[in-house]
Design goal:
- With 278 residues, the protein is an alpha/beta fold.
- The protein has a single domain, classed as Glycerol-3-phosphate (1)-acyltransferase (3-Layer(aba) Sandwich).
- 43% of the residues lie in helices and 15% in strands.
- The chain is built from nine helices and ten strands.
- An eight-stranded mixed β-sheet has the order 1-2-9-8-3-6-4-5, with helices on both faces. The chain has a two-stranded parallel sheet with strand order 7-10.
- Helix 2 packs antiparallel against helix 3.
Amino acid sequence: MYNSEETKAFQRQLAEALAYKTPRGPARRLGPLEWVRALCFHVRLVWVYVVARKIIRKGNFDLTAYANRSWKSLSVTEACGGRVEVSGLAHLAATPGPVVIIGNHMSSLETVALPVLIMPFKDVAFVVKESLRTHFIFGPIMRAVKHIAVGRSNPREDLKLVLTRGEELIRQGVSVVIFPQATRAVEFDIEGFNTLGVKLAARAGVPVIPLALKTDFMANGVWIKDMGFVHPERTIHFAFGAPLKVAANGREEHAAVVKFIAAHILEWGGTVKGEVPS
């Protein structure tokens, strides 16, 4: 059921501990072949959202159901060998009102896992690409929750839409998550990380919270980008930073976000392309 006591217990745990780490236990084995592991993971994950579509058709898809589907996605990831570590939730808890959360973007795993991590502290909406609204798995969920969809073919129109719609959501008390990259990538490309997030925060008069993540446990697929191999040996990381008040043109705050993300990715053994701000 979507009104899950397990989800509520998980969210209470996040709110109390302000951090999370997958409990240590026996190693989970899904078979020696990469395609077998990937198939097990993706079939389970798709089923999470098949159930979500059923809930939506019944008209029962509320914030509780949204959080539960996100928690189920995280649970499937752990059941398939994923080890999750979350830090910095104290910054979300201690910052009153809505914020703009700015993070790097590696895979679709963060899109499905982040809602349950953020929702104990903030109502949340994501900036997503327009094609996600018609996605055969995620489309109905995106259309059922608050979001901002951008086409990515006209940067000027995307900027106007994010600033306008983002400010509306923030005025309603909703925090906005934005991944200011052209596309998902394992490598953090500093030059391709735009300033849209700090521009939105400056316009709405709210703080920025940096988010560094490493979700290459779920690789991007060759034929279907959302369905790549899984790598249980790669720990899944989410780290939230201290809030930044945006002043003037936001360049210093943008540089601070980039520095925060780059430092964590390097610490986690990832790759950063470009010069890290000093």
